């Protein structure tokens, strides 16, 4: 066009050049675009027949402009100065004026037609100039970037709390070259390295922290949990090895045994001189520990027990430390005295001699390679009439006396069994804390990568960090809020457990079970999202997310299958509900009914259920009311449903089976409300204003994300109307956008040692 005779004779034709370049720059001229352009050309009465034919030839899809010609068109257009406000028609007028020395005669009709074509072609008029001058573009998405609105080190101190010195010590140890990762597919080499690491930790006195001072410790479960969580930034096989040796094995001896067992074993367990196992799970019995089939038969004639595996299903399976390193084990077995079954009790059983050779009657098979945690030597143990001394029964809650009779201060077998397990609930605190640490590591990698990794961007402009994209923010920001929320909720659980009284134990066990399930499910979801958010880089072994995913996958299963644990939570809530009503007199019942009526007035009136004010939606009182209403309503609903089934003659076992999904929802609602409450309570105690402000934003996102997740239920119940749930969805997106600028400093506050991340894509 530039050198054509038509354009030289009538420079006004240059007014079409910006439009022509724009439509051809997409490579394909569609029939609709051709039709629109032809209509504009026909309307131009100032064009003669030949000029019309010439312009039509320039929009012939069978004869597109050559790449070099298109480049020449662009060069020509760039000769005129433009502003970000110019339309294609404005640029065309300037171009025509340039080629006619300012004398191009273009009618108002032509300008009107050309201005309209931008809309008919689906172009945004005010952005037309970006095609030629992308540097003019200044989108909000481009501008968003990491900011530092609070002091990262101050937030780290808030997170670490009174455990800061111990956390710093463990991180310093993990940063030592001795803890450098190894890349190997050799199981033996990896297991040996993990054992070596565990011994180094034991030498630092970290294994015995929970034991009494006379056995090398300081009687602090809180410190033990802190170490386990901090180690989870490193290698999770080490965490599990540490937990099996010093937690499950050592704590079972400590909590289930008495002074004679403590004196005999605890010091050597704490120094790892005596590696051991925790043999509870059987091939045929996992979650239902009460149904284990291994037997411990008392022998009157020589005051011993015979430990025996009666069948293949009674083998102790998945036992950590068993395949190679364990020398002894706490074995859970049915106590048989004079042919009577006295329920499950715990016994210390030798597995190997000091040289590591299996003892008579012990058969151990290596579980081999697993999906993850391959630094842990899991094994299957079978006992064939293994005889142990009478004193090897862990006898804090039950024993066989000198006359060979069973004794216990707890009469009920069931109550005794659950009392024993209650002392071991610490595992359900350590595992979610470990899982949440893994989530923090994954989020640190993914968020730092998202802040640096650019992709796409406005046409012709620079690419944009992927963390600026709304979908990416929706993927990661709620998970970041979850990690912080769980951090404070698990601190609360730890404090409750450490300071527990016997009266509180049932509530603490339920909370531990629920948080373990919720947190480890969240870990699995978080790490999968982090992997995908890092694209192909996240799939590389060097960037650690794959290892974190594989190693934490089993967290949803051990220390209690999550689905079973959520049912346990629900049954605990139902028991409390039943007790609440059974102890209620007429006055109490009236008060309850009055409170329900008050809820309808204050929370479910036409104004509140439609209220979309941001101040209301971010009000913690609104969150608490909404969470509690859902929790209570679903609890009452499942209680009524169970009662109806049982009243209709259904067996109670079948009734619970029919309502299982409903029961699990009771557990979720209880846990999510507890997490929200404890997050808010923790935020209130923060004295640093800037840190409190950013934590409040995370709290808001956690609360709103849960409401957004359950908006269908709230709509069904009439607790909210559509206008309000839409506002919640909009606010959810906005909170993700707002937190993005704080995301990198927020993960930096986890203060994970660089060598523990071992992820090149996460390097600042």
Please, could you describe this protein's structure?
The chain is α+β, with helices and mostly antiparallel strands. It folds into three domains: 5-136, no CATH class; 176-424, Beta Barrel (Butyryl-CoA Dehydrogenase, subunit A, domain 2), CATH 2.40.110.10; 428-762, Butyryl-CoA Dehydrogenase, subunit A, domain 3 (Up-down Bundle). Helix content is 55%, strand content 8%. The protein is built from 29 helices and 13 strands. Strands 1, 2, 3, 5, 6 and 9 form a six-stranded mixed β-sheet that branches. The radius of gyration is 35 Å and the shape is elongated. The model has no long low-confidence stretch (mean pLDDT 91).
Describe, in short, the structure shown.
By secondary structure, the protein is an alpha+beta fold. The chain contains 29 helices and 13 strands.
Query: What percent strand?
Result: 5-15%
Q: Number of helical segments?
A: 29
Structural class: alpha+beta
Highest-level CATH class of the largest domain:
Mainly Alpha
Shape, please? elongated
The number of strands is 13
Give the termini separation.
51 Å
Instruction: Give Rg in angstroms.
Output: 35 Å
CATH architecture of the largest domain: Up-down Bundle
What is the average of the pLDDT values? 91
- The CATH homologous superfamily of the largest domain is called Butyryl-CoA Dehydrogenase, subunit A, domain 3
């Amino acid at each position: 066009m530039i050198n054509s005779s038509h354009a030289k004779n009538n420079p006004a034709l240059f007014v079409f050049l910006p439009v022509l370049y724009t439509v051809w720059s997409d490579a394909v001229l569609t029939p609709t675009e051709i039709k629109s352009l032809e209509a504009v050309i026909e309307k131009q009465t100032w064009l003669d027949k030949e000029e019309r034919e010439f312009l039509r030839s320039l929009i012939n899809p069978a004869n597109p402009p050559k790449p070099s010609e298109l480049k020449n068109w662009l060069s020509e257009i760039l000769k005129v100065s433009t502003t970000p406000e110019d339309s294609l028609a404005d640029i065309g007028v300037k171009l025509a004026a340039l080629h006619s020395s300012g004398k191009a005669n273009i009618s108002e009709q032509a300008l009107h037609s050309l201005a309209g074509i931008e809309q008919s072609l689906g172009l945004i008029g005010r952005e037309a100039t970006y095609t030629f001058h992308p540097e003019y573009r200044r989108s909000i998405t481009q501008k968003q970037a990491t900011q530092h609105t609070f002091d990262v080190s101050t937030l780290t101190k808030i997170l670490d709390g009174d455990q800061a010195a111990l956390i710093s010590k463990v991180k310093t140890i993990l940063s030592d070259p001795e803890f450098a990762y190894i890349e190997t597919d050799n199981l033996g080499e990896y297991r040996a390295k993990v054992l070596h690491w565990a011994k180094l930790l034991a030498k630092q006195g970290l294994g015995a922290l929970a034991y009494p001072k006379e056995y090398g410790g300081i009687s602090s479960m809180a410190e033990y949990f802190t170490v386990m969580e901090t180690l989870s930034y490193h290698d999770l096989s080490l965490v599990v090895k540490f937990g099996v040796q010093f937690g499950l094995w050592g704590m079972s001896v400590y909590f289930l045994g008495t002074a004679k067992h403590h004196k005999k074993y605890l010091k050597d367990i704490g120094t790892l001189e005596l590696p051991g196992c925790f043999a509870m799970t059987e091939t045929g019995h996992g979650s239902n520990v009460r149904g284990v089939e291994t037997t411990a038969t008392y022998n009157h004639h020589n005051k011993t027990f015979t430990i025996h595996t009666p069948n293949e299903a009674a083998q102790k399976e998945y036992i950590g430390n068993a395949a190679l390193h364990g020398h002894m084990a706490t074995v859970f077995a049915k106590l048989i005295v004079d042919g009577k079954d006295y329920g499950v009790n715990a016994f210390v059983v030798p597995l190997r001699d000091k040289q590591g050779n299996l003892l008579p009657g012990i058969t151990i098979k290596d579980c081999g390679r697993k999906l993850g945690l391959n630094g842990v030597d899991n094994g299957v143990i079978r006992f064939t009439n293994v005889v142990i001394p009478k004193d090897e029964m862990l006898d804090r809650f039950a024993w066989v006396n000198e006359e060979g009779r069973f004794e216990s201060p707890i009469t009920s077998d069931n109550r005794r069994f659950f009392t024993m397990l209650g002392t071991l609930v610490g595992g359900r605190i350590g595992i979610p804390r470990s899982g949440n640490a893994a989530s923090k590591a994954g989020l640190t990698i993914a968020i730092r990568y998202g802040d640096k990794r650019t992709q796409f961007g406005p046409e012709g402009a620079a690419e944009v960090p992927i963390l600026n994209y709304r979908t990416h923010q929706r993927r990661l920001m709620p998970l970041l809020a979850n990690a912080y929320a769980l951090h404070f909720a698990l601190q609360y659980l730890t404090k409750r457990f450490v300071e527990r009284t016997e009266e509180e134990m049932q509530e603490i066990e339920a909370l531990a079970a629920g948080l373990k399930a919720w947190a480890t499910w969240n870990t699995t979801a978080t790490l999968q999202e982090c992997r995908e958010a890092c694209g192909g880089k996240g799939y590389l072994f060097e960037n650690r997310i794959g290892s974190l995913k594989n190693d934490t996958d089993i967290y949803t299963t051990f220390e209690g299958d999550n689905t079973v644990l959520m049912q346990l939570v629900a049954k605990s809530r139902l028991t409390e509900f039943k007790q609440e009503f059974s102890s209620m007199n007429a006055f109490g019942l009236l008060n309850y009914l009055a409170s329900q009526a008050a809820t309808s007035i204050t929370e479910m009136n036409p104004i509140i259920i439609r209220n979309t004010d941001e101040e209301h939606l971010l009000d913690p009182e609104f969150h608490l009311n909404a969470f509690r209403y859902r929790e209570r309503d679903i609890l009452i609903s499942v209680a009524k449903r169970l009662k109806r089934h049982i009243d209709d003659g259904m067996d109670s076992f079948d009734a619970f089976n029919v309502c299982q999904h409903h029961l699990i929802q009771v557990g979720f609602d209880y846990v999510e409300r507890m997490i929200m409450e404890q997050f808010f309570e923790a935020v209130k105690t923060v004295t640093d204003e800037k840190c409190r402000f950013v934590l409040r934003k995370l709290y808001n996102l956690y609360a709103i994300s849960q409401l957004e997740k359950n908006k269908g239920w709230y709509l069904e119940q009439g607790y909210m109307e559509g206008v309000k749930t839409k506002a919640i969805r909009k606010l959810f997106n906005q909170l993700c956008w707002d937190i993005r600028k704080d995301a990198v400093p927020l993960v930096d506050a986890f203060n994970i040692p660089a060598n523990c991340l071992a992820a090149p894509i996460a390097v600042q």
